[in-house]
Amino acid sequence: MSKFKKIKTSINDLYIIEPTVFEDDRGFFMESHNQREFAQIGMDMNFVQDNHSKSTKGTLRGLHFQVKHSQGKLVRVIKGQAYDVAVDLRENSNTYGEYFGVLLSAENKKMFYIPEGFAHGFLALSEEMEFIYKTTDYYCPECEGGIIWNDNDINIDWPLEEYELTKEQLLLSDKDRKLPTLKEFNRDN
Ligand SMILES: Cc1cn([C@H]2C[C@H](O)[C@@H](COP(=O)(O)OP(=O)(O)O[C@H]3O[C@H](C)C(=O)[C@H](O)[C@H]3O)O2)c(=O)[nH]c1=O
């Protein structure tokens, strides 16, 4: 029996991963990744890079992907909370263009595995939010692609109201503000 529980989502190959958390009067301990234990739940991908970003509340990073050197990502939140979203961009997938979102937090310790071929983004929901993730391929700036966060066809239900956020308060990079819709991206690439 693995120390990790793999939970299916509405999209094939996209999983929530729940670690075993050992709590005692000092606090807690958990393994956040273990190659052998992951292989036991059919997740034998290799990770080559670890990332760490910090975002203030209302920061929205995404929706990003790499056109070549597509990255699988094992993501989790170690401070605060975030709404994390994966969009299926795998050619011929019967859920192409569909998204799945999950609330990740330091408290729930949930992890989310986003396979290669997906766009990824998240909305920071707490004043301070720290996000760490492992990737299955290296960063390739010249391979970067992206889809605008509020693409009407994908229609992501970002939890703005629940967290007292308005569209005007969202903090995006200049790059992310200018991203195309999925239709525009496919037309131009
Ligand atoms: C992603 C990345 C970035 N950088 C440098 C490039 C820039 O100078 C700086 C900030 O990059 P960027 O604004 O692209 O960071 P994010 O907006 O957090 O991008 C990430 O956001 C979404 C949520 C993702 O899933 C991707 O991992 C990634 O696209 O870090 C690196 O040196 N290595 C990297 O792997």
Automatic annotation (TrEMBL):
<dbReference type="InterPro" id="IPR000888">
    <property type="entry name" value="RmlC-like"/>
</dbReference>
<dbReference type="GO" id="GO:0019305">
    <property type="term" value="P:dTDP-rhamnose biosynthetic process"/>
</dbReference>
<feature type="binding site">
    <location>
        <position position="61"/>
    </location>
    <ligand>
        <name>substrate</name>
    </ligand>
</feature>
<dbReference type="InterPro" id="IPR011051">
    <property type="entry name" value="RmlC_Cupin_sf"/>
</dbReference>
<feature type="active site" description="Proton donor">
    <location>
        <position position="133"/>
    </location>
</feature>
<feature type="site" description="Participates in a stacking interaction with the thymidine ring of dTDP-4-oxo-6-deoxyglucose">
    <location>
        <position position="139"/>
    </location>
</feature>
<dbReference type="GO" id="GO:0000271">
    <property type="term" value="P:polysaccharide biosynthetic process"/>
</dbReference>
<feature type="binding site">
    <location>
        <position position="144"/>
    </location>
    <ligand>
        <name>substrate</name>
    </ligand>
</feature>
<dbReference type="Pfam" id="PF00908">
    <property type="entry name" value="dTDP_sugar_isom"/>
</dbReference>
<comment type="pathway">
    <text>Carbohydrate biosynthesis; dTDP-L-rhamnose biosynthesis.</text>
</comment>
<comment type="similarity">
    <text>Belongs to the dTDP-4-dehydrorhamnose 3,5-epimerase family.</text>
</comment>
<dbReference type="InterPro" id="IPR014710">
    <property type="entry name" value="RmlC-like_jellyroll"/>
</dbReference>
<comment type="function">
    <text>Catalyzes the epimerization of the C3' and C5'positions of dTDP-6-deoxy-D-xylo-4-hexulose, forming dTDP-6-deoxy-L-lyxo-4-hexulose.</text>
</comment>
<dbReference type="GO" id="GO:0005829">
    <property type="term" value="C:cytosol"/>
</dbReference>
<feature type="binding site">
    <location>
        <position position="167"/>
    </location>
    <ligand>
        <name>substrate</name>
    </ligand>
</feature>
<dbReference type="GO" id="GO:0008830">
    <property type="term" value="F:dTDP-4-dehydrorhamnose 3,5-epimerase activity"/>
</dbReference>
<protein>
    <recommendedName>
        <fullName>dTDP-4-dehydrorhamnose 3,5-epimerase</fullName>
        <ecNumber>5.1.3.13</ecNumber>
    </recommendedName>
</protein>
<feature type="binding site">
    <location>
        <position position="120"/>
    </location>
    <ligand>
        <name>substrate</name>
    </ligand>
</feature>
<feature type="binding site">
    <location>
        <position position="31"/>
    </location>
    <ligand>
        <name>substrate</name>
    </ligand>
</feature>
<feature type="active site" description="Proton acceptor">
    <location>
        <position position="64"/>
    </location>
</feature>
<comment type="subunit">
    <text>Homodimer.</text>
</comment>
<feature type="binding site">
    <location>
        <begin position="49"/>
        <end position="51"/>
    </location>
    <ligand>
        <name>substrate</name>
    </ligand>
</feature>
<feature type="binding site">
    <location>
        <position position="73"/>
    </location>
    <ligand>
        <name>substrate</name>
    </ligand>
</feature>
<keyword id="KW-0413">Isomerase</keyword>
<feature type="binding site">
    <location>
        <position position="26"/>
    </location>
    <ligand>
        <name>substrate</name>
    </ligand>
</feature>
